[in-house]
Fold these 2 entries.
Entry 1:
Amino acid sequence: MRIVGPTGTGKTHQAYGAIRTLLAAGVRLRWEAITAADLYARLRPRPGFDSERDLQSLMRCPLLLLDDLGAAKTSEWTEELTYRLINHRYEHLRPTLITSNLTTDTLRAALGDRVASRLAQMTERVTLDGDDRRRTRPAA
Ligand SMILES: Nc1ncnc2c1ncn2[C@@H]1O[C@H](COP(=O)(O)OP(=O)(O)OP(=O)(O)O)[C@@H](O)[C@H]1O
Ligand SMILES: [Mg+2]
């Protein structure tokens, strides 16, 4: 599932809600949630750290929430990393939840045709619209 829509419309909230519903229904699986920005920071190559192993673990994770895809600054490296992660999950039919602010066209521009094409096939798009809940909520 790919939840898209403007900022603050509740995409992350809904994605965690979906995971909670699965767990509450008794589905027992290993799941991980990470924002795309954290993913790139975590896997950045650095001495003494095997980022390949970390990437493999995310590739194989039975349920992955990739939050805010397309929000982080992109580069050839992030494009390649995203491609490897998405392609692996695509080929192995691993359930993947995506949230993104980007429309299909801007996602394609940010992450490349190969990622966009796989996402279009492997995820069902759900669009949230409405106001930014962070702004419209009364101050506590
Ligand atoms: N259904 C809901 N009921 C009550 N509060 C909600 C609901 N959905 C979201 N919120 C609250 O609204 C705020 C924004 O929600 P959330 O972080 O899920 O938005 P988002 O679409 O992921 O935003 P962004 O694109 O900036 O990541 C959060 O404080 C969240 O707790
Ligand atoms: Mg969010």
Entry 2:
Amino acid sequence: MSKIKVVVAGVGNCCSALVQSIHYHAENPRGLMNYDLGGFKPSDIQVVGGIDIDSRKVGRDLSEAIFAEPNVAPKFCNPPPAGVVVVKGPMLDGADGVLKDVIKVDDSPPVDVPSYLEQLDAEILLCLLPTGAQKAVEFYADSALKAGYAFVNCTPAKIASDNRWVESFEDRGLPLAGDDLMSQMGGTVFHMGVLDFLAKRGVDVTKTYQLDIGGTVEAYGVLEDFRREEKRKIKSEAIKQVLPTDSKVATGTSDYVGFMRDCRTGYFYVEGKNCLGSDVIIDIYLRTHDSANGAGILLDVIRGVKIAIDRGIGGQLTSVSSYGFKNPPIRSPLNESMEWFMSFVKGERKR
Ligand SMILES: NC(=O)c1ccc[n+]([C@@H]2O[C@H](COP(=O)([O-])OP(=O)(O)OC[C@H]3O[C@@H](n4cnc5c(N)ncnc54)[C@H](O)[C@@H]3O)[C@@H](O)[C@H]2O)c1
């Protein structure tokens, strides 16, 4: 099997966990949804390029940059030096608003991103920019088109769910997946799973909320109104698809607590009625590591995109997107999206 060469834009916490997971799971399948996927193992993924704007990351080997501040992803393992030096990308709106407080913007000139990508000769550009950086995400999507890369948008910016971008990637025969990564065991997927289970047991859910507290840069940035609204809307829409239309739903990051670092606690409340109109109440919390949660799904998404590349499939990857993202172009219930993804991997579904 050939290697899957990936370039990452945004060497933050999620990138840190991705790089570590490729090393950690080289021989260790435990804790993953899929170890062998279409003949590819996690160790077949190679991050061959990294782009950021923070002076603590730019110019450093990727294996060091992933542990540089303000990243808080823990050292789960020690990936060997990658021989990949992080380069400076254009800032655009990547450090707007409160992110100015935490990102130290490097003062060197940015590289020409399409030429950098062409020279690396990789296949997939993974966009891990902060929430709210619409212009910067669009810039990287456009650079992927210019350099002939598949594009994976892990941010909430509208790319895979925007027909104009879908058509551009289709025209170029390049795969496109997104938007807004859905963590392996994060709040949204957990909430959807609980609600799906309740629906199957006949419980009529009337009210539910999911409120998160975290200590990452992402949790800090999402406190700002325009980012909070973007996230809240996507999370609520993902949850609403498994609820009766008149149910009341609230979701969103409710606060940033620095000492929690990479940990995120999601508080879930569900109120419903079962037989005889009697009350069913769930009031629980889930605590996970944000970064590892992102990497857990990215290992599958990247391999799914590589399968599309090898089959010559360009444009919207509906199975990969509905399996791995909170705001895919076509939404489907959890079980169905997992079935779609596995059928796609086996070659029974085109996209
Ligand atoms: N579990 C998860 O990690 C998870 C789940 C769902 C969605 N996401 C999404 O993934 C994205 C990344 O998450 P994260 O926690 O790694 O974020 P992060 O804030 O830790 O990292 C973002 C990185 O992007 C860099 N950056 C900012 N502007 C840039 C630019 N113009 N060019 C290049 N780099 C730039 C920052 O310096 C930083 O290193 C976010 O949009 C988030 O919503 C992550």
